[in-house]
Please model this.
Amino acid sequence: MGLRRRPTRKERVLAQYSSAEAPVYYVQAVDGSAPEGKCLRSRLQLLQDLLADCPPGDLLDAGCGPGVLSKALLTSHGDAFRITVLDQSLSMIRYCRASASEVGEVRPAVGQLEALPFGAASFDVTVVTGALEYADAAAAVREIARVVRPGGLVIVTMLNPGSPYRLVEWFVYWPLLRMLAVAERLLGVPVDRRHGMAITGIRTLSVHRLSRLLADAGLRPEKVVHYDFTALIPPLDRLPALARLADRVTRRRASADALPDWLATGYLLTATRAPVPDPPGRNADDLRIAPDPAASVTVPD
Model:
């Protein structure tokens, strides 16, 4: 009997989000009281604030997941954005399309961040949230830069690798949960009562490193915003009373702009692609390149 092949990082990532239940779990996390929900809501609000004054145009939600952001934008902006959603998980895309149909319409596509199925200069805005950590970041950033139009906006988010919260979560809390799951299995604890934590495949970048990747791809990094500040570490943040106390303290200090960036569990970077000067006698609108419908992957029902 041969040795069982160890799954690749990409296979592990896809396995986490390919089930029919994965989109439901994600949406429940956004609405829930767990620390994950607080982080996701902070990120969503930050994105909506940044896009509030953005001119109408073609927007790509790359790594869209179940479409929480796209649905929120359709609700708040109506048809100002012509939204294309992309994810490597067919389950996520199906859920996203069904959810968005309640308030508007999106153009769905299944694909990889490292090989976006769109023509060059297809979008005015490209948003990548909660997805770059699971991809080949350098290749993905090059693709993101390729599909955004001259003068267009790119918004990417990243879990903060310098956060004590994340460091304890990744290198202490999650490994302990995995060790506990092994002990519970040996002791015969029922599967539905065991602890555990899947191998996530997460790889994060510092602000400096991600800014360099954006610049190397021809983009101009402009703004860095940190979000989801917390003074707790796992699992203390799962104690409701302590979490509420810590949240009140951080809110007061945040209002005074007195929180260090390393207390944030995530950050957001904006960048733009340099505009192309108008040739003599041509209108700037003549230079816009429409998305190529043939380049999108049809999603089966």
